[in-house]
Amino acid sequence: MQVRDLLRILRIRWRIVLGTLLIVLTVAATITLMTTPMYTSSTRVYLSAVGADGQANLYNMPSTEIDTVVQVANSPIVLDPVREQVGAEGHPMSVSIGIAEGTTLLDVAVTTDDPQLAADLAAAIPTQLAGVAREFSPMLAQSGQRVEARTVVPATVPSVPSSPDYFTNIAVAVLAGLLLGVGFALLRHNLDTRIRRKEDIGELSDRPVLGAIPLLKTQSVVPFMEADPFGPHAESMRRLRTNLMFVDVTTHKHSFVVTSAMPAEGKTTTAINLALAMSDAGTRVLLVDGDLRNPTVGRGMGLEDSVGLTTVLLGNAHLEDVVQRWADTNLWVLAAGEIPPNPSELLGSEAMREAFESMLASFDFVLVDSPPLVPVIDAVLLDRLTGGTLLVVAADQTRKRHLGEALRTLDTAGGTLAGFALNKVSAAEEAYHYKGYYGQQHAKDEERRTRGSRSASEPPATRAARRERSRSRR
To answer: Quick check: 182 and 21 in contact, CB under 8 A?
Structure first.
C-alpha cells in the first residue's frame, strides 16, 4: 500500500479515526481523573557504625550484607513500626530502596496519597532500618557496634503529585487513539464489501470507468439534463456521453444497453439523462425501455407507457406509431408497453431482433434500459443486439460480490462490456479526483497568468531588454 492509498483511506474513514481517538481520550481522562493522586518523597542516607567509644565509622558492608539490608527495608520488620510511628495505617504506600552507584549510600523513596506523610515516612524508614541492621550483619554483631543513619539529602514535602502524570497520560492516549483509529480504519476498509470508488471497480475488471455521476438528493427518476442543464450532474453526463462515443467508434453499432448489477442503483436515471445528453449533440436518439418486468422510463419522463415495445413485438403497432418525442428535442422514447408474462422469451425472439434492426435504421443512436444483470438474464439478451453494455455501479451501495457476479454472467454469455458508470459519487470523492487529475494543470495555468500579469506591469524598456537577453541565449 502506497502513502497515497493510505491517505485516501484515512480521508474516507476519518470518522472512524476521530471516533476512536475521542473514545480513547475519554477513557484515559476518566481513569486519570478518578485515580487517587500519589506523592513521592525521597532521601539519601549512609549508614555509619558507632563503637562503644562513640566514634562513628563509615559502614562498609560486603555486598551480600548490603543486599540483605535493602530487602529488610521493604519488610514488615521495618515498615510496620514506621507506619505506627507516623500514623500511616490505612494509607497506600510503596517503598523503593536502592544503592547509589559506586557508593554505599542508600536512596529511599516513599510514595503515598499524602505529601506530608510521604516525607515523614521517607525520613523515618532509614532510622528504623539502622536500628535493625545489626541483626542482619554478622560483622556488626561480632564487633558490638551499633548503626546510625546519617542524612545526606533530607526528605522534603512534595508539592505536586508524582502520579497520575496528566500530560503523559493524555499524550499516550492521543498516540494510542490515533494508532487504533488508523488500524480500525484499515481493517474496516479491508473488510468493506461495497464499491466505494473507481479503484474498487478496477480490482474486479480491467474495463474503464467512463464517467462518475454525483449523488442525487432525490431517489426518483429525474431527467436532470433538462431541469439543471449547467449543473454538475449534467456536466458529468456529458463526459459520460463523450467517453461512450469513443467506445462506439470501435463497435460501429451505435447502440448500448444500460444496466446494473442489482435494482435501485440508478440505471434508469442514467439511461434517461445519457439519452438527453446525446440528443443535445444533434444526434437522433431512441431510448428504449427494455425492462419488461418493472418499466419506469415512461413514468419517469411523464409519457404514456400503456403502449410501447411489447405492442410492437406482438405486431399490434408499428414502431413509428408508438415512439414518443421528448419535447422539441432529438430524443424519442419507446416505452415498455404492457408487461408480458414471458419477458425473456420476448427479448430473445426473432421479432425483437427485427424490431431492433428497424430502430437502428430509423435513428442515429439507440439506448436500451434493461433489468439488472444478477436477478435475470434479460440484459444479456439485449447485449447481443447492441454494441455493448454500460454497467451502472452505485458508489457506497453496490456490493463487490454482486458486481463480480454480474461480470461473470456477462462474460459467460459472451457479452461485451463497454465500461462502467460510477453513480451516486459523493461530493468529497468527486472533488478529490478533480484535484488529483486537474490540480497540477490549474497550478500551471495560475503560474502563467501570474507571470503574464507581472510582465505586463513592467516598463516597455525592461520588457524589451529581457526579450533581447532571451534571444541572445538562444
So the answer is: no
Torsion 362-366-370-376 (CA) sign: positive
Instruction: Tell me the three-class secondary structure of 14-67, residue by residue.
Output: HHHHHHHHHHHHHHHHHHHHHCCCEEEEEEEEEEEEECCCCCEEECCCCHHHHH
pTM: predicted TM-score of the whole model, two decimal places: 0.60
Is the preceding omega at residue 459 within 30 degrees of 0, hence cis? no
User: What is residue 61's predicted lDDT score, i.e. its pLDDT?
Assistant: 55
Which of the four pLDDT bands, split at 50, 70 and 90, describes residue 453? very low
CA-nearest of 330, 229, 242, 241 to 279 is 330
Contacts of 232 (CB under 8 A, 6+ apart): 214, 430
**Cβ atoms of 113 and 36 closer than 8 Å:** yes
pLDDT of residue 67: 73
Contact 129, 72 (CB under 8 A): yes
Least confident of 80-84, 147-151, 301-305: 147-151
In tens, the pLDDT along 14-68 reads 899 999 999 999 999 999 989 889 999 999 988 777 665 555 454 555 556 667 7
Contact 455, 421 (CB under 8 A): no
Q: At what angle do helices 166-191 and 14-34 cross, to 10 degrees?
A: 150
Residue 308 pLDDT exceeds 90: yes
HEC string of 299-331 equals: HHCCCCCCCCHHHHHCCCCCHHHHCEECCCCCE
Picking from 264, 292, 270, the residue whose alpha carbon sits closest to that of residue 402 is: 264
The Cα–Cα gap between 407 and 388 comes to 13
Confidence of residue 456 (pLDDT cuts 50, 70, 90): very low
8 Å CB contact between 164 and 37: yes
- Rg of the chain (C-alpha set): 42
Task: Please provide the distance, in angstroms rounded to a whole number, between the alpha carbons at the two ends of the chain.
Answer: 46
Domains of the chain: 3-35+164-191 (no CATH), 39-153 (3.30.70.1130), 198-430 (3.40.50.300)
Length of the chain equals 474
Three-state DSSP class for residue 272: helix
CB-based contact 97:107 (threshold 8 Å) = yes
The pLDDT value recorded for residue 454 is 45
Nearest-angstrom CA–CA distance, 328 and 413: 39
